[in-house]
Amino acid sequence: MATATLTPLTLDSYVELSEPELEARIARAKAHLGRRLVILGHHYQRDEVVKFADYRGDSLRLSQLAASRAEAEFIVFCGVHFMAESADILSSEHQKVILPDLNAGCSMADMAAIEEVEVAWQELTRTTTAPIVPVTYINSTAAIKAFVGRNAGAVCTSSNARKIMEWALGRGEKGLFLPDEHLGRNTAYALGVPLERMAVWDPHEERGGLSEEQIHDAKVILWKGHCSVHQRFLPEHAEAARKKFPGIRVIAHPECRFDVCQAADELGSTEFIIKRVTESPPGSKWAVGTEIHLVNRLAKECADKMVVSLEDCGCLCSTMFRISPQHLCWTLENLVAGNIVNRVSVDAETKRWARTALERMLQI
Ligand code: 13P
Ligand code: SF4
Q1: Is the CB–ligand 2 distance for residue 229 below 6 Å?
Q2: pLDDT tens per residue across span 168-194
Q3: In sequence order, what DSSP letters do the residues of 54-65 get, joined into one string?
């Protein structure tokens, strides 16, 4: 193999390569690294990137897969920052997790800063003596996961949120759900908690914008955070889809707003949506309320069904989209050259407590 073709360029130079050149370079670097490398691709990733992934999946499944591939020294995570952190938390000492573009964050995870959560916790535990169990969605920073681990709580994913919230409410008198207001509300409501017993903590308001009475009365305190992609779906989109395509089923991710989830026929994680649509009989019609790359791929892979986005313009996760084939190529060619670029590494203390919260979830 000609090593000259594997010499990394400056990041900016990769945009000048044609698509076939870029693809050939990625494939060559991947082959060169062999079993030392595993590439993970989230379901929301674009086709030009996900085609190089050894595994495709949701955030939790990918982190678990990374941990189970002990021979892989490099885990290149084509996803967003919190996913790469989770992979680092669950993987072994010798494994290095790399995010091809460090700017690929998650707007929801960014809505709960650890300093804000610490303040909220102090205020809440000062206001009420009722035991509160914190639960954080996996879409949160490692620092938030560690906070939850230290305070006897657990992490949840969109597929096990119900089970974890049930566990939390069985242990404490109240639950604090971070950082997604909508997933928290949808899950608590499905468990029978009335909307009047849920309060929203706004970190930008004094004492979360809540009175003492509201805190005392709340069964579940929801952090005011959301996904800017899923928040764009509206209940009228479900109505319009049903009018346009009679017999269509609406399936949405539980990060969507409460009224959208109420209007949907089915709710579930990315894995659930894929399974449900794929396994439905030929001729089935689906309006899907989640990120557009997943929807488009499903439509392509399930040509015997009709699959459309719940919203006409399609909702794109722009941070996930930052992971480009150019960034992937630059990352891999640097690894071949012995340079580890864009490593995501969680400090030991944070890792210990975040792992506790993740393991608690796996035990439940
Ligand atoms: P999943 O864990 O269902 O893949 O969702 C991840 C995510 O970021 C949804 O917006
Ligand atoms: Fe974050 Fe929303 Fe993108 Fe998922 S879709 S990674 S929650 S910004």
Answers
A1: yes
A2: 999 999 999 999 999 999 999 999 999
A3: SEEE-HHHHHHH
